[in-house]
Prior knowledge:
The protein is mainly α. It has helices at about 25-35, 40-45, 60-65. It has one domain (about 20-65).
Amino acid sequence: MSLPSPVCTCGDTNCPFNPVNHNQGCGPCILKNLSLREIPSCFFNLLDDHGIPHQYSFEDFAKLVLSQH
C-alpha cells in the first residue's frame, strides 16, 4: 500500500485524520492527538508486539517503551 506521507504507518484508513483521507499529511492527526494528550498510533507501531493499545496516552506509551528494555 502506498502511503501519502512517508512517515505514516497508521493502518486505520477509516480515521478522518489519516493522510489517505485528505492532502494535509500528518498534521491533522498530530493536532488531534496533542489536544487529547495522546501519542499517534505510528509511534506505537514502532514497538515490538505492542498489539492494539487500550489507550494512546503518554503514560501508556511510556510504560510500553520501558517494558521493552
